[in-house]
Amino acid sequence: MMALMQSLVALSIDAMLPALTEIGQDLGAKEVNDSQLIVTILFLGLAFGQGIYGPSSDTTGRKPAIYLGFSLFLTGCLCSLFSTDLIVMLSGRFLQGLGLAAPRCVIVAIVRDQYEGPAMARVLSFVMTIFIFVPAIAPALGQGILFVAHWRAIFAALLSCGILTLIWFASRLPETLAVDRQIPFTFARIKQGIFEVCSHRVSLGYTISLGLISSAFLGYLSSAQLIFQKQYQLGTMFPLYFAILALCIGSASFLNGRLVMRFGMQNLSRWSKRFSTTISLVFFLYVISMAGHPPLWSLMLYMMIILFCFGIMYGNLNAMAMEPLGHIAGMGAAVTGAISTLISVPCGILIGHSYNGTVIPVISGFAISGVLIVCVMHWVESTTHS
User: First vs last Cα of the chain: how many Å apart?
Assistant: First the structure.
């Protein structure tokens, strides 16, 4: 159930990738790159929404926060479904992101209510495995809908999935936060929670690392349709190539769920970040030598390696960031999620809007974020070891 609710986030992001150009043309987008905002604006809603649901889930319980989020998500789906211009579409997408912040944030708190340490990383890795399976098929679903219907049918499908998921959640999942653990909602407590997360070097460092990973991934995600369909002229084959890359993350998350209990979160994250950063720097130099247009096989091989490493790191970094925050799991999940998303959204938009017909902006995003992650995690681990 947790995986399905997380997957709704991925479905809302990726199902419309094949339709971005068509949506932009129908709604009067002035520039080709403006259509990328249909993807990135949802992440902005995710960032702001997590500040709402985390504290409220600590106060009223996990389920009421999910109900509020799904209400906003369904409203956003309706808004996008009946949009007549790009502004209305983006408003609906922001509402969808604002609503999806509930499962994005509260699910971590629900898992933290029942698990901690490597066990939590293991659960999150399996959730992430299913979560990534959806991006593997979401563009194909979107492309399939476009074959038989208008792009608005994609939003109708999202609306239906949201309703069905909400019904399942309401009828099957018990409340995981006991009444005696609920904390009164006050702005002073929110301020204290933010201060605690930001003043704890381990939580802050791994949260920043999550944001940097997400920055590079969001830059790739918003540019993927232009890279594969326009630059490499794959046309309707784009969903297949996108699926292969998405499955690399999913298989890594699944493998991490089996390895983390044996090798530990830090060791797996450390070697993944070192390897991915080295590969990114080498491939960046190769891409420059190829004037930003490397052979498709080399780009796919590089992306498969990088996204596999990201799949290893993501669940572990999330669990390590939450490890010291069990007593404020809802607030902790909200703050770490909001900080990482507020880092990733502007950086991801910058990478996406820098697309110039070559893969240089995307590859440079992976390389720069890799170097920064190495620096941040060294800062965290040097303090931990000392």
Answer: 41
Element housing 174 (H / E)? none
Helix axes 238-263, 265-289, angle to 10 degrees: 150
**Which CATH number goes with the domain that contains 93?**
1.20.1250.20
pLDDT for the residue numbered 345: 81
In a domain, 179, yes or no: no
How many Cα atoms within 13 Å fall on the side-chain side of residue 228? 26
What is the distance between the alpha carbons of residues 176 and 174, in angstroms, rounded to a whole number? 6
Question: Is pLDDT of 386 > 60?
Answer: no
* pLDDT for 327: 67
Structural domain includes residue 178: no
The pLDDT confidence band at residue 89, using thresholds 50, 70 and 90, is very high
In the numeric block, the tokens 């303090």 are attached to: 383
Q: Six-digit token pair at 128?
A: 């992430």
Q: What is the DSSP letter of 294?
A: -
| 181 lies in some domain | no
DSSP three-state, residue 271 = helix
Q: Residues 333, 334, 335, 336: is their CA dihedral positive or negative?
A: positive
Query: What tokens appear for 214 in the block?
Result: 């997400």
Domain total in the chain:
1
Joined tokens for residue 289:
């030598």
Closest residue by Cα to residue 364 from 261, 251, 277, 275: 277
- Residue 106 phi/psi, 5° resolution? -70, -30
Q: Which domain holds residue 335?
A: 2-173+187-385
How many Å apart are CA 183 and CA 255, to the nearest integer? 36
Other CB atoms closer than 10 Å to residue 254's CB: what's the count? 19
Task: Label residues 14-34 b or e (16+ Cβ within 10 Å = b).
Answer: bbbbbbbbebbebbebeeebb
Give Rg (Cα) of the chain.
Answer: 20
> What tens digit of pLDDT does each residue of 49-76 get?
877 777 777 778 888 888 999 999 999 9
CA distance 148 to 153: 9
Nearest-5° Cα angle at 5, 332 to 71: 85
Structural tokens at position 376 = 């941040």
Side-chain-facing half-sphere of 126: CA atoms under 13 Å: 11
Tell me whether residue 36 is in a domain.
yes
Mean pLDDT for the stretch of residues 293-312: 93
- Give pTM, 2 decimals: 0.74
